[in-house]
Write a structure and sequence with these properties.
The complex is a heterodimer of chains A (266) and B (293). In chain A, 34% of the residues lie in helices and 27% in strands. Chain A is an alpha/beta fold. In chain A, strand 11 and strand 12 form a beta hairpin. The mean pLDDT of chain A is 90. In chain B, the strands form two sheets. In chain B, strands 1, 2, 5, 7, 9, 11, 13, 15, 17, 19 and 20 form an eleven-stranded mixed sheet that branches. Chains A and B meet through helix 2, strand 7, helix 3 and strand 8 of A and helix 1 and helix 2 of B.
Chain lengths: 266, 293
Amino acid sequence: MILDIKDLSVSIDGNMILNSLNLTVKGGEVHAIMGPNGTGKSTLAQVCMGHPSYKVESGDILLDGESILDKTVDERSRIGLFLAMQNPVEVPGVTNFDFVKAAIQTRMAKDEHLRIGKFILKFEAASEELRMGKGLAHRFLNQGFSGGEKKRNEILQMKMLNPKFAFLDEIDSGLDVDALKLVGDNVTKMKSPDLGLILITHYQRLLDYIVPDFVHIMLNGQIVKTGKNELINRIDKEGYEWVKKELGIVEEEKRPVSLGVCPSKH
Amino acid sequence: MKLLVDKNNLIILDKENIINEYDLKIESNQIIIDKEDDIFIYINDLLSQKPIEIRVKNDVKSKLFIVVTNSRTNVIKINFLLENNSELELVSYFSAKNKAKLDFSRSFTLEKFSNLKLFNFLTYNGTLNIDETINMIGEGANTKLEFLNLGKLSNVTNVLQEINHLAIKTKSMISNSLIASNKSKLNYQVIGSIAKGMEYSDCSQSNRGIILGEESEIAVEPTLLIDEYNVSASHGAAIGQIDENQLYYLKSRGLNEEEARSLIIFGLTNPFIEKITDQGLKSLFKRQVNRIV
């Protein structure tokens, strides 16, 4: 299993966000993507999922060697992509149970039937493991959920849908210490050769629980540095300035601009 | 009507006649509800323009199901009186086989600690004008008013809902769920008023609408007229096409466009339908929603 992002350039409303980005994720690997705000981390996840607001200017996204650029959002989900959203949307009146059931049924062959008893047991087990409370099935999708509950609900959906590749977009934001450990443990338990994980995060703390195999730093829409845990530690202590200096990246607002020349006597 | 064939507790208002198959007390055109039961009233081609009077006696809890299937131009007026401590759960279903026009008005007077739950399911073929006026004149009276309106073809529905808090500690909640498809037009005027001196009263309104067709229209005018400080009141209206963010979220879990739209629409209609206790009506409402979807 392999997710290949090749020379991907993406824009939104005429503004370039990703610039010839390259990334390869294999089944069983955990990749962490870090970087300052606005460098395109979430955009990468959304583009892979097929969000219609973004325009792919050039490059490709391949799943097991086949381009997915012509596939719709739902098709990408059914072939194995998953995105745990940074800000999960509320859908009033739709119960969590009905939603997850519909998502599983849409993946089944036409002559296949959902074994409802087995589904209920799996749903309840996942709910228990994520400490979502007994009433989760009947609660409306994300409505009235705390920030932490919304994030845990994303992981519950991931557990139920068994994707091949999952982007977790700032899954740690809004989680208290205990919830972070719970999410980290649950995601770590899901690690297998059949799952590639891409964690988007600002902070080391998530990566204490879900240990990455690769750490990438994104700047200006590109992956500029790849390493291992030593990168996380350095970012945590020093931020991203050292990376910019090392690579000679000068941000536009900091470039020297001429204000004009001083008048001279002749 | 097939739905009512096996109902023992049935009253039929047909043309000029009241056919009382239930043996309910009827005095001078006033229907008296003095026992706990589920009662069905079927209104078909009513010609009389004299108001129908329905009185729920003290301390009685009852459920009333009104099915209106007029197929001719008509005006129907019903006046309800809920005496002290009575409870009425009233489910009304409006439909017409052939294009028709109906002016339907109801007034409710609620005495002390009486409780009214009103559910209206509208899918009328033609023009339907509804006027619901609720006067809570007794302390502690309580009203919940819920409408589910499915507009299709070129149907027009005009609704005036007016709830007047005329006693202290009265509570009202209006919840409208509206879906307009094809060229249908749904117009709602929603008024909640709390009179001076009616302290500790609570008045809330919620309006949600989905516009499915390019030529469909939903217009909601929520109004609060509050003449007392020591009360709580709120209103809101969220009308528009299906939320693209919701659609994207559902699709990101594998639902195709049609499945995602259906689920969002069911999300608007299910909370209403799940509250209907008569299984026959519940199934009928679900089928009507499926047709829209």
